[in-house]
């Protein structure tokens, strides 16, 4: 089990948490575990700063108000987790409780002091949200990008530490290439990750946005979007083209599904499109084109 945990969470975190970060954090808050706990106390709300590594940006206002009403009536039963910082404390876990307590007009909140460094805080914040499935695809992509930039991880190392495939990490990061308007659509759950990935095949941001609006208005499926994107990419003068071999069409479709990118099959050669060096490495890895000794 130790080896499996280390593969999922990386050195250090595996020893602390095993495989389920969110479950262990809940155990600590409920007094079932004293892992890395320094002490329990009440902290002034104005002394607690939000977790700077919190990847979750959107919080449901209605649910926060409901929680605030419950806190006004019954108080806060589950302590938040904090770490000591310059001039106060930084939040590790319990942001909904912290926000709702402020809405409820509380001055203090029960807390547990933890001993974590910045790297552990960043990984914990991401892992907890991923395991709770609290993040939308854009928030997840932004968190991946931050960990790569701040901690120097490669995509392979990041995938190993969070228990995801290299392909999932690469595809999620590609969403950050979407225009800002489309990223908002994904964050608001108007477009799925599948829709967004299909639209990324277009190089023109204006085309992307026009097609995205059509997708939302007509509630189109991912398959329908892929078809529309291909139609948009076709040259206008197609009347004199020879009809394509239906068997080759099927092969091309399978290859595109396999590599998650545009594939063209023409006489005696196959063309596989890639976005950048990372995307090329992803495809080479899938077909065994990378030297294992590197």
Structure, described:
Helix content is 53%, strand content 13%. A hairpin with a 2-residue loop joins strand 6 (263-266) and strand 7. The protein has helices spanning 2-9, 13-17, 21-29, 61-74, 95-103, 118-132, 137-151, 155-162, 166-174, 180-187, 193-199, 205-218, 222-233, 246-259, 277-286; strands at 37-44, 48-49, 80-85, 88-93, 108-114, 263-266, 269-272. A five-stranded mixed sheet has the order 1-5-3-4-2, with helices on both faces. The longest helix is centred in the middle third of the chain and has 15 residues, at 118-132. The chain is of the alpha/beta class.
Topology, pairings included?
Blueprint: H1 2-9, H2 13-17, H3 21-29, E1 37-44, E2 48-49, H4 61-74, E3 80-85, E4 88-93, H5 95-103, E5 108-114, H6 118-132, H7 137-151, H8 155-162, H9 166-174, H10 180-187, H11 193-199, H12 205-218, H13 222-233, H14 246-259, E6 263-266, E7 269-272, H15 277-286
Parallel strand pairs: 2-4, 3-5
Antiparallel strand pairs: 1-5, 3-4, 6-7
Helix pairs in contact: 1-8, 4-5, 6-7, 7-9, 8-9, 11-13
Give a summary of the structure in a few sentences.
The protein is α/β, with parallel strands linked by helices and about 290 residues long. It is built from 15 helices and 7 strands.
Features:
15 helices; alpha/beta; 13% strand; elongated; 5-stranded mixed beta sheet; 294 residues
Uncertain segments are: 1-16
- Work out the helix count: 15
Biggest sheet overview: 5 strands, mixed
How far apart lie the N and C ends? 28 Å
Strand order of the largest sheet: 1-5-3-4-2
Fraction in helix: 40-55%
Radius of gyration: 24 Å
Average pLDDT, rounded to a whole number, is 78
Q: Label the overall shape.
A: elongated
Series of H and E elements: HHHEEHEEHEHHHHHHHHHEEH
Counting DSSP E segments of at least 2 residues, the number of strands comes to: 7
Class from secondary-structure proportions: alpha/beta
Strand content: 5-15%
């Amino acid at each position: 089990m130790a080896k499996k945990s280390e593969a999922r969470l990386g050195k250090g975190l595996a020893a602390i948490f095993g495989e389920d970060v969110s479950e262990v954090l809940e155990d600590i808050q409920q007094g079932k575990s004293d892992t890395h706990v320094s002490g329990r106390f009440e902290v002034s709300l104005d002394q607690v700063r939000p977790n700077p590594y919190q990847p979750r940006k959107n919080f449901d206002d209605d649910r926060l108000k409901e929680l605030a009403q419950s806190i006004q009536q019954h108080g806060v039963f589950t302590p938040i987790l904090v770490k000591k910082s310059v001039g106060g404390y930084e939040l590790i876990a319990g942001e909904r409780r912290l926000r709702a307590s402020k809405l409820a007009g509380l001055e203090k909140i029960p807390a547990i002091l933890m001993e974590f460094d910045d790297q552990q805080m960043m990984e914990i914040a991401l892992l907890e949200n991923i395991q709770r499935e609290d993040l939308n695809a854009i928030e997840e992509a932004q968190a991946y990008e931050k960990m790569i930039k701040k901690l120097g991880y490669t995509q392979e190392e990041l995938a190993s530490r969070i228990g995801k495939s290299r392909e999932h990490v690469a595809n999620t990061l590609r969403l950050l290439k979407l225009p800002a308007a489309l990223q908002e659509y994904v964050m608001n759950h108007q477009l799925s990750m599948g829709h967004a990935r299909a639209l990324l095949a277009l190089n023109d941001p204006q085309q992307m946005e026009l097609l995205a609006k059509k997708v939302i208005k007509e509630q189109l499926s991912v398959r329908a979007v892929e078809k529309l994107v291909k139609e948009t990419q076709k040259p206008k003068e197609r009347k004199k083209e020879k009809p394509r071999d239906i068997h080759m069409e099927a092969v091309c479709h399978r290859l595109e599904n396999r590599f998650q990118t545009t594939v063209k099959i023409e006489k005696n050669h196959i063309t596989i499109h890639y976005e950048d060096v990372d995307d090329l490495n992803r495809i080479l890895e899938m077909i065994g084109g990378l030297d294992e000794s590197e």
